[in-house]
Structure formats: C-alpha cells, structure tokens
Amino acid sequence: MIVLDSVVKRYGEHIAVNNVSLKVEAGEIFGFLGPNGAGKTSTIKMIMGLMKPTSGTITIDGHDIQKDPVSAKKVLGYIPDRPILYEKLTAWEYMKFVAGIYGVNDKDLRESGLKYLEIFGLTEWSNELVENFSHGMKQRLSLSAVFMRNPKALILDEPLIGLDPRGARLFKEILHTSRNNGMCIFMSTHILEIAEQMCDRMAIIHKGNIINTGTSDELRRQAHTPDSGLEQVFLRLTGGEDIANIIKELQT
Fold it and tell me: Residue 104: inside a domain, yes or no?
C-alpha cells in the first residue's frame, strides 16, 4: 500500500534520509520510530508529497506521489502533530470543506461526518468557530475530518498530542477498527509504550538510516534484549544507553 524504494533526501551536503526502503501493507499499523533529527519528519513530508525526494520513489496504493499526486492523495489521510485548520470556519463548515475537496457526497457527509463529530465529543461545538477551539479540540476535529473520508492509507505524526484520556482511548479503538477493516496506518511517535501497544511492525530510523525493522519481539531479539521493554531496545539500537549513566549522575 505504502512503498518507499531507495528514497534519499539531501539538504546540501547533509543526508537527512539515506536510501530508505519500506513497504507497509493494507491492514497494518506500522510504527516509525527514531530520535530527534533522525529523518522521520523528512520521510513523512516526502510520503505526503510535501517535499520531493532527492532520489528514489514513493507510491501510495500504486500511485507515484510525485508523478500522480492527485490520485495518491485521494486515498491518503494525514494527521500532523499540530493540525493547521481554517480558523474562520465553524467545525461543521470545515467538515463540509474537506468533504468537498475529496468528493465526499452529501449523504456520507451527513452520516459519517456527524458520526465522528459525535464520537470525538464535538457535536455541541459544530457551529463554533475553529479559532475558539483548544489544541485538543482542533486535533479531534482533524481526526473527525480524516476518518469521515475513510482513506485507504493514513499517516499519523505524533497523533496523541493534545488529546485527553477519553479522546486518546477512542482514537486507539478507531485505529484498531480501521486496521481490521483494511486501512494502512503509518504512525510516527515518540511514545514507545503506545508504539508497542498498537503497532504490528515498527522501523527504527537513526541518522537517516533504517537500522531495524520488525515486530516488537523481533526488535528485542535484534537488540539482544529479549526480556526488555521497547524503551531499552530503542536506546540500545540507537546508541542511547548512556542515558543510564546520566541519570545516575543526576541522582548522586
């Protein structure tokens, strides 16, 4: 569903993404993990067609994101860590705007749009201007608009930021349901506990390179830490184990 083939991104002499190849299947939640500056954001921007790769190709459901961006983006949904919405629209006007862009008919807008506004607790705010929303409410509106469309592939960048416990729990349940219904979900997160709970497979990127890919158990075996949590696995694979020494120094 989402295929990256030998993708490279250079900024001058700096290689932000180095020969990355990944394949994420339909009906899969795929975690994309890495420390700050590892190349996660650049990779996501290239998948979304917001940035052109220096070399390599990216296809979404068989559509090349550079050669046929309209077809690729029709089947693609995106939820950034900080949603950018039209703040002079009401919540319902924003839902109608998104429906118009992606060709969602009036019947589906009414049924699915209203359903997700209700699920995410925004029904009573549907006629309120978005500029009056908190960050968490904007995130829930962004989620409502994306799930209303039921895209084949979904890109998530730190999706739980700003959500309260209820919203986070609902979001995780919707993700699992969507995955079970065949959606391809590509999720970048720093919350390793969430990644371990939700992701079928994960890739760890470090200094622009994919250093490990697999299930959480496979990553443990690759890190030679079969009984450790994902945090310890992540630190070992990315060379961050020195954090233990720093913590000891702070405690003395």
Answer: no
Mean of pLDDT values over 82-109: 94
Question: How many whole angstroms separate alpha carbon 186 and alpha carbon 77?
Answer: 10
The total number of structural domains in the chain stands at 1
The beta-strand segments (E) located in the chain are 2-11, 14-24, 28-33, 55-60, 63-64, 76-79, 153-157, 184-188, 201-206, 209-214
Residues 6+ positions from 94 with CB-CB distance below 8 Å? 85, 86, 130, 141, 145
Q: 120 CB contacts (<8 Å, ≥6 apart)? A: 140, 141, 143, 144, 167, 170
Q: What is the pLDDT of residue 220?
A: 85
The reply to whether 66 falls in a domain is yes
Containing structural domain, residue 16: 1-75+154-160+183-252
**CATH number of residue 56's parent domain:** 3.40.50.300
158: left (phi over 0), alpha (psi -120 to 50) or beta: left
The reported pTM is: 0.89
User: Would 11 be classed as within a structural domain?
Assistant: yes
The torsion of the CA quartet 195, 201, 206, 208, rounded to 10 degrees, works out to -120
Residue located via tokens 């020195």 = 242
What does the alpha-carbon distance between residue 108 and residue 73 come to, in Å, rounded to a whole number? 19
Residue 234 counted as domain residue: yes
